[in-house]
## 1
Amino acid sequence: AHSLAGFLFLKAMAALLFFAMMCPIWCGPEVAALKRSIKKLENRLLIATWQVEHLQRHKYFKSFQPAGFNPQTVVDTDSADQHDKMWHRNTCEYFYELIQFPFFNNLHLSDCSELFDRLRPQSGFYRIRPNMHQEPFLVYCDMDDGGGWTVFQRRRHGRVNFNRDWVDYRDGFGDFKLWNDEFWLGNEHIYSLLSEGKNLVKIDLMDWEGHSNYAFYENFRITDENDKYRLQCGQYSGKAGDALSGGSGMVQQWSAALCGMQFSTKDQDNDRYLQGSCAQENEAGWWFNRCHAANLNGKFYRKGKYKAQYDNGVVWGTWKGLWYSLRHTTMKVRPLLFLDTGSGAGEI
Ligand SMILES: [Ca+2]
């Protein structure tokens, strides 16, 4: 019995030695996968710990009234608006807390798609860093509509003035706190966000009757400040029409195509309109030609159809024409090869 135990022990040791020698070949991928899932679990644990701490310290959903919102003075009473406000009341407090989220500052996320892949958090404001030579900055991540979208432009209620100068458009402006805040992320940030790899930009639009529409552009890019953030757009698809290419006619394309145009603001005229400044007439910073078939940074007119000296509304010409100012707009980006769960063509 003694010698049998010894024999078995020796055999077991030999097997163990054999496995230990072969493991770098056999176990490599498994170990890596295990490490990844441990990392994910650690992340989840950190989030959960943070949530519990805040639940105890701040009662989590603390009473918080957003600036400018007063249910007694609301005059818009259509259903989309009511829906917005109901949703807003229930969720804005949560997003407000997420901004303070210290943990995300240490993740070194290059964009919202990376955050979505790693943690699948809810939509909200997070800090990203597309370029390691740059400081991290705050963006709104749309984790619905398939998830992983980094939002770089948004109009919702017209409270933010979009008639800004070059420096404001370069560095960004607006509010970065609540889910329906309006902002321009800034050309410098947009440049760093779009310069890496192949991407897909989605433009979400909504009219004043609550109908939504969208346009996709593959490999949407802008150049750097030396070239005045010139717009380059790839293949269009969608239902709202290819307004960035100016529309269907040759004349429209000659005067209104935005792809290939430099960025202009009220104090920097880089457009092709020799007699004047498109940015001044349209009261917006944008990639003007002579001048445009779409301008999502235009003047905010309530109720859609508007009359003015110039077609300077929030406009997507191929959908509602140049004399209809849109109610909601969003411009957002994610990698072209993004394995999502949705179609990416849903509601805003
Ligand atoms: Ca000009």
Note: The mean pLDDT is 81.
## 2
Amino acid sequence: MDLKSNHTAPVLTDPAPINKSRLGVHSGMLPYSRAAYSASLLLSIPRKKTGILDDVRSSSWLDAMKSSSPPHKKITKVFNNDYALSDADDAYNTWLVKYPSAIASFEQIANHAKGKRIALFLDYDGTLSPIVDNPDCAFMTDAMRAAVKKVAKCFPTAIISGRSRDKVYDFVGLTELYYAGSHGMDIIGPVRQSISGDHPNCIRSTDDQGKEVNLFQPASEFLPMIVEVFRSLVESTKDIIGAKVEDNKFCVSVHYRNVDEKNWDVVAQCVNDVLKDYPQLRLTHGRKVLEVRPVIDWDKGKAVTFLLKSLGLSDCDDVLPIYVGDDRTDEDAFKVLREGNQGYGILVSSAPKESKAVYSLRDPSEVMKFLNSLVACK
Ligand SMILES: [Mg+2]
């Protein structure tokens, strides 16, 4: 991602800068003290005085917001003729050569999975549920829930979502799974003594069913700051019709899918203005959502690695991890699997886009078919 501001505001390029400390948390940032941090920052870093909207218009904020929200579905409505439809289909079919359908290629995947232990990782929004106007209503269908339940009985399965862990659990409602919320910054996984020893933020806990689990929250020190930023963003965007700020515990999402496109720069400016006071936070783009999260060296890819280790499945030749997701944040997980030459990333997309995934699925209904095929294959 290439969000760059032309001043010293804490809107950082993605991926996040890698820090030297164990979890990437700058030691000077902890414990959280905004006043102390801001004072030292003001002394050490010159700041440009910001004019209204100067920052977001002169940077690539809006370009990134638009590219995160491709209007491909509208093309067929605007050009309602065979030629336009054929062009879109041709583009998608060409793209499928590079990212083959995981359904059409299922036999190949199944052959590769023979004698291996599959570990399944699933994003939630846009993968198991449709993207809807109101993020509070992103419900999965009963058929999808049944498919996820069945597949989780066959293979260890985890949901890794940008939502808070509690919220994604409320949507999915299955106890058979592991859940990682806040882009992997809030994980409940199986108990492993070695994991707890490796990660100081990993503690023994019990889940809602009283089962002993490992609770891993690498950004726990940032919680008071995130709460403060959430409140500031709610206040600063309250007059923008359609804007919605969502508290996802260790990150904050600012949804603009219901905001008139001519006001997207106002949304961007509000977020930029709030973030200027928080160099410890960074911004990433999802599908019609700006996401604010701590600057720590942790993402969905690291969450996959952590969960594989928790499950006792890391460094094993006979393990085949499969990660299914639709978002830019899922690319971190695709990258981990691709670079580790272990398993497959599967991108859910109905429009051509570059990805680190190996295979593709068009939409959640194809995800369900794929999950059912995995169960049948088992
Ligand atoms: Mg998603």
Note: The CA atoms of residues 151 and 212 lie 23 Å apart.
## 3
Amino acid sequence: MAYKIVASQCTGCSACEPECPNGAIYEKEGIFAIDPEKCTECIGFFDEPQCVSVCPVDNTCVIDKSRPRYKAKK
Ligand code: SF4
Ligand code: SF4
């Protein structure tokens, strides 16, 4: 899976963007989004997803259940 940002809750504060170790977070028209092809759920970098950790709005950075779980490349 990847994380996604619930667009209707994102305030556009940009706190998450520089924290992503994969550069997966980008701005689009004042709100932020996650490129699911780049998001590794922070696996291999941090114990906690950094976008979730820094986002001031609860339940805005959430798991995208429509995607398979991320598997680390060996
Ligand atoms: S979970 Fe980690 S890798 Fe995925 S978007 Fe958030 S900060 Fe980036
Ligand atoms: S930290 Fe949260 S509210 Fe701020 S830009 Fe990222 S998703 Fe939006």
Note: The chain has one domain: 3-63.
## 4
Amino acid sequence: MLLYVHVPFCVRKCGYCAFHSGPFSQEAAKLYVRQILLEMAGWGRVLGRVRLESLYFGGGTPSLLEPGQIEALLRAADIWFDLSPRAEITLEANPDSVLLPGFLDSVRSLGVNRLSLGVQSLQDDLLAMLGRPHDSAQARRAVHAARAAGFTNLSLDLIWGLPGQTLDRWMNDLAGVVELAPEHLSCYGLSLEEGTALTRKVEAGALVLPDEEIGARMYLEGSEFLESCGYAHYEISSHARPGRESRHNQGYWAGLDYLGLGPAAVSTIEGRRWSNPSAFEEYAEVVAKGEARDEVEVLSALTRRQEMVMLTLRTGAGLDLEKFKATTGTEFPWRHPAVEQLRSSGLVRLRAGHLQLTRKGMLVSNSVIEMVLGVLDRMHADTV
Ligand code: SF4
């Protein structure tokens, strides 16, 4: 099983962010840790000492917690679950928040073995436009400090398609992060989320996005460049040195069970899915009531099949057609005219028994996956 712990605090809200997070205070963090410990104990009693292959502190900004608080959470995970000695333990962090003396040494010595740094850009004007709490010098210092603290598995997040970003500036950012030699890179296209400050500025014309063709080149040429530097493009937004793929995310894409703790966290266990309330007070009430949830979605066989197709098509390995047949009892309709059309347009390919999105297909993955699901849904409707 995968364990996700959502840490819902940030020093301030970035202009583009729609993740669930609120203002940080020492008091709020103490209260939060207490609730997570209660929630973890509750699930530990219900689920038994389930083997954990990955523990992921995401946010928000988990690096705002004190090492002592992270230690308490790790200890509890080891008590209530069977935390594998080989488990991947990731901490998401903002560059500015890991530079406090001793922080990185402490969390590394506690067993956190993977650090995911929200670098986003190496250009200060773009970081300021995004409302990030750090600058590029801090991002570089954070990488060096992580290495000095003994982290050998570093992931850096970057964003392409930003207002004011040109193709050259994006490629310079990529060259800059490659020089920092992380093991993993996540490159996300900017997504304009409803209600964010950045979206309002774009809608008002105060900020202008790069045009579609430039955005496409950022993705395609950027991914090619990273591959040429030894980072395999193993998922739509993810690149890694061999063997350094995110095991936690690979678990999601493979459909493993995951337990999410904290406000707004989602869990899926044995075909049942639920979400914690986002508001802290409501979340605390739910934890106090125990593990029963009012709203649990029971995933139908159809939903599970759709998710398997959707999630595996995100990955470089693609959809295993033998596995598809074993799961659904039917051959994948790869000779269907719509699938043929995707193939002849160079958006998907058949390789070693897997249906894969090409890089061009990954660029428009939502539409391609929607088309494939449409074909499968019609096939399903014809057989019932
Ligand atoms: S640090 Fe991350 S989670 Fe927090 S506001 Fe910025 S983008 Fe959102």
Note: Residues 321 and 332 are 6 Å apart (CA to CA).
